[in-house]
Amino acid sequence: MRLPPRGTHLGQANRPETGYVDADPQRHPTLSLQTGRTIRYGMVRPSTTGAMMVPEWKRRGPMTKPVISVLGVDLGKNSCSVAGLDAAGAVIMRRRMTREGLIKFVSKLPQCVVAMEACCGAHFLARTFQSHGHSVRLMSPEYVQPYVKAQKTDDRDAEAIAEAATRPTMRLVTPKSEAQLDLQILHRARARLVAERTRLTNQLRAVLLERGIILPQRRGPLIRRLDDLMGGDLPISARMLRLLRDLRDEWAELD
Hints:
Elements lengths: L28 H6 L4 E2 L2 E2 L11 H4 L10 E5 L4 E7 L5 E8 H9 L5 E5 L4 H10 L3 E5 L1 H4 L9 H12 L6 E2 L4 H32 L9 H13 L6 H17 L1
Parallel strand pairs: 3-6, 6-7
Antiparallel strand pairs: 1-2, 3-4, 4-5, 7-8
Protein name: IS110 family transposase
GO molecular function, one term: transposase activity
Pfam families: DEDD_Tnp_IS110
């Protein structure tokens, strides 16, 4: 039995080979000069000259390592998310590390811009990064929020911080020195003690008001009135009188 010629089955006679097509020098000058062949549908016609196709990245030469221009850091209690941007603003690095690892990582980087939100611990890291020659930019968190894309995550926050730092009109926070931080802590400690004294005074007024005794608002008359009440007979139980004396002693320590 004589078999039909190849390619004539089911009416496909004279069908061209669509899997392999030679390169046209006018349409594909690069491939025709490099290998004399082209790719169609994922298949390559074997070269008749024995030349091999060279990838584009090899023809360009050795690839250079991308350089971080802006480093955005999202600070956390135990770990930090880091995003690096190149000079064109493209994200070239995302990583998560501890605070100690962050200091070691930044110390090995070439000079770049390190961006962070002005929060707890940011001023210490800012002075540390500046000692390594980096330019530090601290920003208020409310100014970084508009640059967060899609759902909020630590990695996206770090990218948003890096992008916000590249804006020329961004308002920056000056890193505080150790003396400035000490003075700030003193003011905050004093504010806490004043708030505790105010809460204690309000509690004393409320306790005595429940017994029909009204204390004045001003500090001096309040102390004198309270001392007079402690020395006289109060229409309260001995347990409540002992509690009032403890509150009075605590108030005196805060004052």
